[in-house]
Amino acid sequence: MHQSSFFGRKVVAATFLMAVFGWGIGFYGPPIFMYAVIQRTGWSTALCSAAVTVHFLAGTLVVVNLPALYKRYGLPWITVSGAATLAVGVYGWSIANQPWQLFIAAALSGFGWVTMGAAAVNATISPWFVSKRPGALAMAYNGASIGGVVFSSG
């Protein structure tokens, strides 16, 4: 029996999960984190909203440099280190006792989430698919929607 060595389906499944966590935590999470921080600390909405802004601005610094980072360190290393950075940042949101700590946490979560966002999904899927790339991307990007449902449901 001949066993296929094409790992495209596994890549799509892994990228789907990457999108679930990337968008679920990194894109849909900050407003939820903001509410939790306000409830826990009593800090103003303006201050906590500024942290959400820092989260997304920090992400732009990484996402515009993803091609260079992939070239230098490789996609797997950047993705794993980004996931770890996101986790540290989210933990920081939960324990910040001073505004400066919150802003560091927001920057870390922002740096991390984009390594599992749209550009990362595209970079992961593209080498594996040519003619069926649109379908593979569609399946992988569905993870973003599932992430929103799973991580933002209250």
From TrEMBL:
Coiled coil: none annotated. The chain crosses the membrane at residues 12-37, 43-63, 75-96, 102-125. The keyword Transferase does not apply. Keywords: Membrane, Transmembrane, Transmembrane helix. The keyword Transmembrane applies. InterPro entries: MFS_trans_sf. This is Major facilitator super protein 42.
